[in-house]
Fold this sequence. Notes:
Shape: globular
Strand order of the largest sheet: 5-2-1-6-7
Distance between the termini: 54 Å
Low-confidence stretches: none
Bound molecules: D-mannonic acid
Amino acid sequence: xxxxxxxxxxxxxLSRKEPAPKAGIVHLGLGAFFRAHGAIYIEDAxxxxxxxxxxxxxxxxxxxxxxxxxxxxxxDFAYTAQELGPEGESLxxxxxxxxxxxxxxxxxxxxxxxxxxxxxxxxxTVTEKGYCHDPATGRLNTGHxxxxxxxxxxxxxxxxxxxxxxxxxxxxxxxPPFTVLTCDNLPENGRLVKGIVLELAERLDPELSAWIAAxxxxxxxxxxxxxxxTKPEDVEALAARTxxxxxxxxxxxxxxxxxxxxDFVPAYGKDARPDLAAAGVELVxxxxxxxxxxxxxxxxxxxxxxxxxxxxxxxxxxxxVADPVFARFVKALWRNEIIPSFKAPPSVDLVAxxxxxxARYANPGIRHRxxxxxxxxSQKLPQRILGTLRDNLAAGRASPGLCLxxxxxxxxxxxxxxxxxxxDVRDPLAERLKSLSDGADDAPAKVSALVGVTDIFxxxxxxxxxxxxxxxxxxxxxxxVRAALETVS
Length: 489
Ligand code: CS2
């Protein structure tokens, strides 16, 4: 008999070394990213501040799949974080997660956990599409099937639904709200989630919405660490090395950064949050400049490299930037199109930041697939690339590289690569995007159809971009990716 990852069934399971901490945080969307980033920061904060470890345990919630719970429960929710640097790796056992709940199976238990007086923070990594909003406007999408469900049922299915129904229970019980700490790569993520929560609450109960607006807190955050998806061969290699079976290790780069607005629910006083600064979290009064920097410089080039790299036949980001044409291209993107588009955060040197990003991308220990980053482009493009394009257009600055990136995304969502091979496109709008592309005969018609998707492009931007993206699309098709990139580097 063997396990899922092809390991001998008698291999001892990873187990906890310390007793499980008492919960102070509920985390919605327990994936690899949060386990390799926020969870480690929180564990470090508790340890290095000599604080009460017991009070800030994390209850993870998977909104849909039982997989994470099934993998972590047999090992008491402990897991290994494997740091992969260019010069070697190190292992650490993380024990801050004290339970994992599956919302689809048992929403009542999730709401009970979120309305426990000991829980003072709800953190989220539910990905861009988990907010059920319209990416072009940032407003709640009231036509979203999960939101329609949550407006009619007391037991929710969506992340905004859980936040609102749990806050309603806390209000009814006379408790203060929890702080909502979003850790997703969205612009002004705190303000965005606040708007979504208030809009949903307003539709259910205007008094609830007023109470949340007055008492609730939604600090914005900038999160950063490159965390590729864990593959079965990673699980096997770790087991071979340690002699123990960890079904859910996380792999990550050495770099990490977390910038958080220091605005937590005041009713809890000094117990409102762990001592995050003790772990190196930057607590600031306004995160906007950091968010812009990270979304445009890192995520914007990540997505550009993902679509263009995938179409050029590169499997990972490190392979992509090892190709000299791509290395020159991404450096030109930073220098000519991205850095001039926004204001740097206080005392940050953007040229040095770009150099550091390039070194992170080149780290051969991290096998981050272009296909993984290419997922959900319809939800990512506005904040990663379109904002920069809009600002450059307004300033009269050309953006030939970013236009190639958007054109590559259009080819990608058309579902066929430049050699005519099918692409496995994962995106909430995948079907619609493919049928728009299929329904148009040539490059200009395809670009016109796709810039017409108002969930992604507003009308003014679409009109300005259409000729520029058409030119880029034709160039990619006619000359191939590498020759097209040479024209902008
Ligand atoms: C990536 C991000 O998958 C993606 O879309 O761009 O997950 C990226 O690795 C992180 O934001 C880095 O902090």
